[in-house]
Design goal:
8 helices
């Protein structure tokens, strides 16, 4: 079905990204594909498994996963302008249909997995560290005790990039 077609599109996009390099256009495409997959699959499949499968060699995938998480959280809390309610786009409808993505991602220890992936594979990638810090900010309202400290130290995530 459509879910499988979106997964196939994601896999095709990932294969077009060189290992250890960024590609802004493809990162944006991946983000949109991950959001689409999240409407068909649980977040642990769409984000966590994508991160585990391709994150260790492709920083573009890590960034797209982080961006998709932020967009899902931000979209779930957004409210459309009542005057423009007929103009709500499909992305908002997909995102708002998901049950509390912040809570779902927290229960998956998503921030910890994201942080561990960056620490292990791309500790000096400032751009990626910044994206992960942003994602941690969106997850800051989760219960305490997650290994990912959302309070940056010297502008960096604790435990990433030497901070």
């Amino acid at each position: 079905g459509l879910g499988q077609e979106v997964w196939t599109a994601l896999e095709t996009t990932v294969t077009n990204i060189w290992d250890h390099l960024h590609d802004e256009d493809l990162e944006e495409t991946l983000t949109l594909e991950l959001i689409a997959i999240s409407s068909f699959q649980p977040l642990h499949v769409a984000l966590t498994q994508t991160l585990a499968r391709w994150g260790p060699t492709k920083p573009a995938v890590v960034r797209a996963v982080a961006d998709a998480a932020c967009d899902l959280i931000r979209g779930a809390t957004a409210r459309p302008d009542s005057e423009k309610s007929s103009e709500i786009d499909a992305a908002f409808m997909v995102i708002s249909a998901l049950d509390n993505p912040r809570q779902a991602l927290a229960s998956l220890d998503f921030a910890g997995k994201l942080s561990a992936c960056v620490r292990a594979n791309f500790p000096n990638d400032e751009r990626l560290v910044e994206r992960c810090t942003l994602t941690s900010g969106f997850l800051a309202h989760v219960p305490p005790g997650l290994p990912f400290d959302p309070t940056p130290s010297n502008g960096r995530m604790r435990g990433v990039g030497g901070a």
